[in-house]
Structures are given as structure tokens and as C-alpha cells.
Amino acid sequence: MIDEEELLLGVLNTAPLNGGHPEEHLTGERGADLARTLGGTGSPEELEQLRRVRDALQSLIRGRTETLGALQQVMDEVHMVGTVTPGGLSWSLAAPDDVRLAAQVIQAWSAVSQRLPGRLRACANEECNLYLIDHTRPGTAKWCSMATCGNRMKARAHAARRRSRSR
Hints:
6 strands; 6 helices; single chain; two-stranded antiparallel ribbon; ABATE_dom_sf; Znf_CGNR; alpha+beta
């Protein structure tokens, strides 16, 4: 079973920028394979739901709340089912097949946001469209990857400082 952070980032990071242009990874066979890997059906309808949820969550993470309605539309098709066992009560999500994975992504976003407030964020590189969950002790991680975006941004800052000193 995929954990909630892996599920959330697995969907959020499906529209990376390549040469300044977004690539769409939630379409066709590539998207279907990813959805099945994440526990979904891979159907075109499911991929459409995932794209809608991804876009809404990306906007929300960047501080735009007008996308809450898109998330609510998905959750309106979901209900929770309680199961009583000798060990207690457990709850599971019940939803149509094409909505279930999108609803699980929303659940993962909510859980991560509550457990790690302020730690889910967009990469600080404006030329990147990826997201990260900051697990550093001080909570200061800025980049999706230190090896790519972090190194690139530090090199740019260094070059800018050198240029300003030489003037």
C-alpha cells in the first residue's frame, strides 16, 4: 500500500515543466499506468478526476482558495463506511471507482496538511512546477530536489552576486 505522502506527491508532481512548458503525465497509457500503480483503475474518467484534483490542490497550496469547489465536488460522491471488529471500529472510504483515487489524494492532502502544517509547498524555483513535503527539522526546505533545483538556484544566486560585485 502506498503511503499518503507518496500518493499526494505522486499526483501533485504529474505536470512538471520541461523547457518552460508543462508536461502532462496524467493522460494516455502513461497516466493509466501511474494511476494503477497508485491503486486506481487507470480509466480515462479516473485520469480526468485526478487532473482536476491535482490542479485544484496545486492552486490551493499556492494560496488560491477558489479551487475548493472542485475538491468538494469529488468529496460529494464519497461516504465513509464503518466496520466493527473485535479490535474496534475502522472507517474506510466508499466511492465510485473513477472517483476513489482522487478522493484518496484529497484525504492524503488533508492528513499531510494537518500532520505537517506549512510543510507542503511548491518548489521555490519559479521554473519548476513540482511540490515537496519539508521534513527538515527547521522547516526551511525550499526546493523539490537539492540536486537539481537547489543547486541551480544557488548557482544563479552566486552568479548574480559576482555580477553585482564586478560592476
